Amino acid sequence: MRGWxxxxxxxxxxxxxxxxxxxxxxxxxxxxxxxxxxxxxxAVERYEELRRLRLRSxxxxxxxxxxxxxxxxxxxxxxxxxxxRLVPGLSVADWLHTPV
Length: 100
Hints:
Layout: H1 2-10, H2 14-31, H3 41-52, H4 60-71, E1 75-78, H5 81-84, E2 91-94
Helix pairs in contact: 1-2, 3-4
């Protein structure tokens, strides 16, 4: 999304923005049916628990993603299994090799 918005901003004229708005709109349509799990109070609590475990090789954003997945008993799809497998109780699968 940021990429298309950057292209829109860089365009020299409103007319030049048209193809970028088209691409941006198609991206929004693609995401329309997705369910986005929230980073809510329960996820914050789980995130803080995970931080106390001091899983050093996992960054802040990845810990938040893991916390959300744990709160919703969801399988986290990622190509970065090395880090996510360190999170206790987290179900992970490689999205590059998981049938849809």
